[in-house]
Design goal:
Elements lengths: L1 E6 L3 H10 L5 E7 L3 H11 L2 E3 L2 H5 L6 E4 L6 H10 L3 E4 L7 H14 L3 E3 L7 H11 L6 E11 L12 H4 L2 H17 L3 E9 L10 E10 L2 E11 L5 E8 L2 E6 L5 E8 L1 H10 L4 E7 L6 E4 L2 E4 L2 E8 L3 H21 L9 H16 L2 E3 L1
Parallel strand pairs: 1-2, 1-4, 2-3, 4-5, 5-6, 7-10, 8-18
Antiparallel strand pairs: 7-11, 8-9, 9-10, 11-12, 12-13, 13-17, 14-17, 15-16
Helix pairs in contact: 1-10, 4-5, 5-11, 6-8, 8-11
Length: 370
């Protein structure tokens, strides 16, 4: 049985801890938060003790794992103290605000043979693996272009929230976009930043025109992907979409934790059978059925064979259920590594580093629009 302590009694740790406690080899030790009243509310919900300082966690030999769910500017110092005390560390994104800090944490974890991982849970989504299979097996042909559009809510981010203060959050690229830089790297390998921009909110009463919209263009092999993040919507309008365009069609994924997929493509019978075997449940609509004379098309100077133009729809679990499963699956994967350091994890410390590197490059190289 492993004992886990939590730092940060906010909304996300309240959501994530129950998923971790589903693991039958984990017990909750206690909570640390700078707000004592919030810590007591957390304790009333989950039990354990209320810690008054970080050293009470690091000096407790009964605690094996520390889950850090504090704002970004605290991640490096808290993770460092926990690793120094030989604790395993699971941290919320981003890993830190500076690349060298993350490299230091990775080095410490490896020297002490401790777990260090950031909660970049997107690659645990079954739809991630479906898309990865389609890409790797060239089912829709070569990848040509992609975008991620994130029209996110700022309704509950009041003007004094730390999210808006770059010194504390790192800004949108670093605080939030790391999830999606990591997701696309999982599909296409490492990307290369081409350009970026940040648009400042003129009405912001603090922090001198905070950026609330950002965009980066990243090259993956010979294709480009546009990443857009805007935190400027009412909660009722919060929405996200990924679109991946291939030679034979496109894949659309919906929600920031994707739980719905649409494929529109021209396919052979064999292609369609493969997709049917990959995705369940699905709804297939044959939009066009081609005669013998219509089965050959040209695109990019290539002959493309197809029997149908189809639309495939998949609706998975609810967004909340999907989200819960991703956190639980990430935690179970990391627990396997704690038990056996030879275990090949889906997400490792390198994901934290790589996603932060491209996020920082996007922020540092962004054209500023005031």
């Amino acid at each position: 049985m492993k004992s886990i302590a939590v730092i940060g009694a906010g909304n996300f740790s309240t959501f994530a801890l129950p998923q971790m406690l589903e693991h039958d080899k984990v017990a909750f030790a206690g909570i640390l938060d700078s707000d004592g009243e919030k810590a007591k509310v957390f304790q009333a919900k989950f039990g354990g003790r209320v810690f008054s300082a970080l050293h009470e966690i690091t000096e407790d030999n009964q605690i094996d794992i520390v889950y850090i769910a504090t704002p970004p500017w605290l991640h490096y110092s808290q993770a460092r103290e926990c690793l120094l005390a030989n604790k395993h560390v699971i941290c919320e994104k981003p890993a830190a605000l500076h690349v060298e800090e993350v490299k230091t944490l990775i080095r410490m974890a490896k020297e002490k043979n401790r777990l260090y991982v950031v909660n970049l849970m997107q690659r645990y989504n079954p739809l991630f693996h479906v898309v990865k299979k389609i890409i790797d097996d060239n089912i829709l042909g070569a990848f040509l272009h992609g975008f991620f559009e994130n029209y996110a809510s700022d309704e509950f981010l009041d003007p004094l929230h730390w999210f808006w203060e770059e010194k504390k959050s790192g800004g949108i690229f670093i605080e939030h976009a790391v999830h999606f830089f990591d997701l696309f790297e999982g599909w296409f390998g490492k990307g290369h930043l081409l350009n970026a921009l940040e648009i400042k909110r003129k009405q912001s009463p603090i922090y001198h025109k905070t950026a609330d919209r950002v965009q980066a263009i990243v090259q993956y092999k010979d294709a480009i992907v546009n990443f857009y993040h805007g935190f400027d919507q009412a909660k009722k309008l919060d929405r996200q979409e990924i679109r991946l365009v291939f030679e034979k069609g496109n894949i659309n994924l919906y929600e920031w934790v994707p739980n719905k997929m649409k494929i529109e493509a021209i396919l052979t019978k064999e292609d369609l059978e493969i997709l049917e075997s990959l995705i369940s449940p699905i709804e297939i609509t044959i939009k066009e059925k081609y005669s013998v004379d219509e089965k050959k098309s040209l695109g990019r100077f290539k002959v493309i064979s197809s029997d149908f133009k189809v639309e495939i729809l998949h609706q998975g679990d609810s967004k909340m259920t999907t989200y819960q499963n991703l956190v639980a699956n990430l935690f179970a994967d990391q627990m396997k590594w704690i038990k056996n350091p030879g275990h090949d994890r889906i997400i490792t410390e390198e994901n934290a580093l790589n996603s932060l590197q491209i996020a920082i490059a996007s922020h540092q190289n962004a054209v500023i629009i005031n």
